[in-house]
Amino acid sequence: MIFSSILFLFTYFLLVLGIYYCVPIHFRNLILLIASLLFYAWGEPIYVFIMVFSMVFDYFNGYMVNKYAEKREIARKFVLLSVVGNLAILGFFKYYDFIATNLISLGINWLKPLNLALPIGISFYTFQTMSYPIDVYRKSASVQKNMISFGTYVTLFPQLVAGPIVRYKDISDQLDNRKENVDQFYDGILYFTRGLAKKVLLANGIGSLSDMIFKMDFSSISMMTMWLGAMAFAFQIYFDFSGYSEMAIGLGKMFGFDFPENFNYPYISKSITEFWRRWHISLSTWFRDYVYIPLGGNRKGKLITFRNIFIVWALTGFWHGASWNFLLWGIYFGTILMLEKSFLLKVLEKLPVFIQHIYALILILIGWIIFSITEVANIPNALFGLIRFTNIFDQSTLWYLSNYGVLLIICLLCSTPLFSKLMGKIKNENVRMGLSLFLIMIALVLCVAYLVDASYNPFLYFRF
């Protein structure tokens, strides 16, 4: 079940919301826990037991870390147990077949692929549960003694399957002391509707273009068509993922939670460093706080700093999936970040702003090509297609532009803060609220009309 489905919008969500606000306050976490387990079990009834195990496992580890808070060596062992246990589960389901397949290709037949389906959201909830004992150990979060409250945090369906990655310390107080109110609920509706419109009207629409182009023969594709494919995929993954994150934030607000923002108009960045401060913020900050800084960050000289950057970005790439293209994608961005940290940022600051934007966008688009093409052997042909001056454009390019040109312009405008700035210039609060409600109604009608008849409604980050 996904948020952008008729079943979720008009059955599951309304039913859960109605029950949630009908029961006494002290039962609301239990309702959310049950609803979240049912939400997850809807598509994967067996794998729900893995989530329950992770929940109990890290509840126990957090409890023991707190119990031995003054005996740091013992507490550290439970932190290590949590890290090893969680990564072992994630590694088995996500990377076992990848390792087995690559060993077989080398003539080593020690392992046989199991072809197990990847549990939905395991990359996200594993990082969430693993951060809890670490934060208790660091004394940046208090231990949670109520199993139902902790279970609600782990399984919370609004952000369960695709983030944002919510750390326990960010919502620990909200779990037991949140107070739902009308203003927050209204903000939640705004967030959810905006995210739904991004996903359904923009990501799904432009996604069909990227799918068509990336299924073509890269050895003969024209340069302009390749760039169109890269731009289409860039818009698809942005509106797909940021839309889902905004739906998650909106749902959280309707239930009284404030989840962190996950995107901040990344395509207006002037460098790759800035891009990664704006894209998938919860993942970037997770790796910064739990990997980069513990490794030494930038405190031990340039050589160690570059080593840490390389490790973090290799892991970031591999986190996205068990495929060599994801690892290459992570190393690609890690290398650029090292170059920017060394000298490129100083050079960029001396250039006109529009040159900085072009620099960042070209590198981002190249990165998305590496990311999207799982067959590594096809990546060189795809990248070469970006500079194929012998075949700049052809009839297919003109056809794509005539059919998707308007949508590409709309996506471009919606990926900037233009519309939010225009809304901010409306000083009269009643006018601004009335316009917002009008746009909400229009967006909902259009989204429902699309979903009723749609056969194309993928969600890219489900596979991660």
What does this structure look like?
This protein is an all-alpha fold. The chain has two domains: 6-178, no CATH class; 184-453, no CATH class. 71% of the residues lie in helices and 0% in strands. The protein contains 18 helices and no strands. The protein is globular, with a radius of gyration of 23 Å.
Short description, anyone?
The protein has 464 residues and is mainly alpha-helical. It has 2 domains: 6-178, no CATH class; 184-453, no CATH class.
Mean pLDDT over all positions: 90
Q: Write down the oligomeric state.
A: single chain
Along the chain, the helix and strand elements come as: HHHHHHHHHHHHHHHHHH
Amount of helix: over 70%
Low-confidence stretches: none
Radius of gyration (Å): 23 Å
Question: How would a crystallographer describe the biggest sheet?
Answer: none
Shape: globular
How large is the share of residues in beta strands? Answer: under 5%
